[in-house]
Amino acid sequence: MNRPHPTAAGGTGNGANRADAILAGAARAFAARGYAAASMREVAQATGASLGSIYHHFGSKEGLLQAIMTTNFRRVRAALEERLTEAVDPRAAIEIFVENHVGFFTRDLDAMKVMSHELSTLHGHAGEEVRALRDAYTERARDFLRRLRPDMGRDELEVATLCFFGMLNWTYRWVHALPSTTSPQQLAQQMARLFLEGFTARTNR
């Protein structure tokens, strides 16, 4: 059985900090080699932790991947909710969503790559937990898009939602090519503007 990530489970102090360091190193190893190809010894080298310490915190290689996914989904969602208010209009909410997502994951591009590539790797309870977190996060964005374009049909809305996350989740592939003067906040603002100008445009039918 996979052990819960100590931070997600409410752990504090040095144990939680050590677990976070292990997750960061594991994300580097999985991003560089792919989850299937990366060995636990390579993970240990990337984290600077012993195999015993890794197994103590996470139980297994699968437990590591599960923790990378669940921890980051929970943290990015928590950061989003802190920035939103009940009264926020849907356009502003989408701008906040993009800025939060880009800001969060440009600080950890390895985790972003792993989450984009390995989502279907986990099965059973671990896979169900990760997909539930992913689906809840996706639905938050879909709801804002629905409120912004209540005239849009279900299929069109689904296409728009997929395009929205396609724009966000592949940032790690090209963010290094950005001008050095472009900050994550500036990038997010431009991405939100480009998406919203297209999404809110009405077409003649």
* Mean pLDDT figure: 90
Helix- and strand-based class? mainly alpha
How many beta-strand segments? 0
Helix content: over 70%
* Shape verdict: elongated
Please mark out the parts with pLDDT under 50 across 5 or more consecutive residues, or reply none.
1-12
* Sheet having the most strands: none
The H/E string reads HHHHHHHHHH
Q: Could you tell me the radius of gyration in angstroms?
A: 18 Å
Share of residues in strands: under 5%
Query: What is the distance, rounded to the nearest whole angstrom, between the alpha carbons of the first and last residues?
Result: 55 Å
Number of helical segments with 4 or more residues: 10
Brief descriptors of the model:
205 residues; mainly alpha; 10 helices; elongated; disordered N terminus
What can you tell me about this protein's structure?
It is a single chain. With 205 residues, the chain is mostly helical. It has helices spanning 14-33, 40-47, 51-58, 61-83, 90-106, 109-117, 124-148, 154-169, 171-174, 184-199. Helix 5 packs antiparallel against helix 10 (184-199). The longest helix is centred in the middle third of the chain and has 25 residues, at 124-148. The N and C termini lie far apart (55 Å). Mean pLDDT is 90; it is low at 1-12.
